[in-house]
Amino acid sequence: MYSETGSTDYAVLFKVCLSPEIQVFLFVGIFIAIAVKTPLYFVNIWLLKAHVESPLSGSIILAAVVLKLSVYAIFRLLLPILPDASLEFAPIVYTLSAITVIYASLSTLRTIDIKELIAYSSVSHAGIYLMGAFSNTVNGIEGAIVLGLGHGFVSSGLFICVGGILYDRTHTRLITYYRGLAQVMPLFSLLFFILCLANSGTPLTVNFVGEFLSLYGAFERLPILGALACSSIVFSAAFTIFLYNRIAFGGSLSDYFKVNIPDLTKREFVILISLVVPTILFGIYPKPILDGLHYSVSTLIFNSDIQSLAFPAALSSVNFSRQHVSLIWTKNHRIVPILFPRTHSTLANRAKKLDPYFITGFTDAEGCFYIDFVKRKQMKLGWTIHGVFGIVLHKQDIALLELIQLYFNGMGNITKQGKDKVQYRVSSLSDLQKYIIPHFNSYPLITQKKVDFDLFKQIIEMQSRKEHLTIEGLRKIVSIKASSNLGLSEQHKIAFPNIIPIEKPKVELPEQINPQWLAGFVSGDGHFCVNVFKSSGHRLNYSVILNFSISQHSRDAELMKSLAKHFGCGIYYPRYNRNVGEFQVRTFSDILEYIIPFFEKYPIVGVKYLDYLDFCRIAKLMKESKHLTKDGLEEIRIIKAGMNTGRYS
Length: 649
What we know:
single chain, Endonuclease I-creI, 4 domains, 4-stranded antiparallel beta sheet
């Protein structure tokens, strides 16, 4: 991987699509290791020996933690980094998993060592959650994670029961010596019964939720092999009933045990009940787990047949082979697709995925250049200074932030901001000097945000010359900060009285605006709106108006007025009471003749592209006069309900 990408950073590897040949080579090597760790049929002998010969603590750690590392490797390495190979090899993985499930289930029916029986059942469950992991469905992947979690609870409890509680009292693991323990160990028999039910995937247990979702996803992916894996439902019930019936019932207490066996101690009861309770609670109400998984799991879904949707020709230098599909799960459990390309490129060739003018236009709309100026007593002058370039978007646009980060050679971090926001942030002085400032020097901003950038650049240059370490340099930085963004805070005004803000540099409008800048700017601040309102002069007493608009602070009024020249249509409307102005295009013929053709040639990038597509759908319906019919008007209302803020609800 390092030879192809120039990095072992996972964040970098995730953004690079390796060639199919390299993916196959890496997949085979990594999957063999995962198959041993899972384990699958042919490479599962070690697990049985390990469980049987290990002390109780070793068996618990092995079942609850170590075996789950194979699933983690799938979600961390195979699916995001080798998606093509994962899809191509899925039938082979399913075949091996189905064989493993059937083989392990049949093996449990013939073994007489109760610890080995639990170990075989673990192999059977591993085959099921492996199929869910490779199902390429949200249900299947979530099921694999839930089943792995449930297996950690249940198998640990079963090993404590048979390898700890029973073995400590009887000193044997052979099932032939057991019978009738329910007569002398009723509390143990009850908890052991619940764990056995969970192990067989009985409803109202967390194993049932995970197994059902995994098998559902497997059946969606490959129905025949999924159906074969469903045989585990019968087999697991068979070996679990055999195990429990033989130990707890089967007549009177076994003659091999001449003395009554004591029931659970308080310590043993607390340990078992701590495993039984979450098994039942999450089986009855798995929503807390599933809701936490929806967003992360959706980013692992990969589709090889769909055409580019939200990231089209603005990525002009990308050769599309397959698209990575990020499915965002909304509060109403409605999935919104966001597609972004995976490219066959090396780390050195990735810098041109988004057009540089698009980056500048989007930054003019959504970006921010600011100085973190924090009081620190341990510093020589009592203050620390950090320059920050940031962009904050709704979490559904995280794919767009990843592409911006990709453009800047992977520099910076993307982090969550509150409940629904994500931020791309670059704060390293070397990264700002090497990537951020040179870009905006070459592709300059044209809104008044350029003033903030120019002042920001002055402070960064002063930092590079170490001027911020002197009191004179610090006061000069404060005077520069006083003229940028919102100026100085009250704390800074008190700490630095009598500071005179420097004169702000002026921004000159360019005669021509690059169309990719416009595409980026609209991707940030543009709005595609559909208004349906009552109108007595129309056939259905309702009128439909399309409105394309761009909102901006009134200080950029001249730029907004000039957009009419660049689009060939539109009017600027100032909103004096809010210090905001809007450039609007409401004439239907202008939208058909100028706006839609422009964005067909220079597309929007991100979730807003979905609003543009819906906008175009409604324009097509209106062009065909379907908005004048009852069915057409209803269709427009349905499309409108899912646009803009409706897409985030």
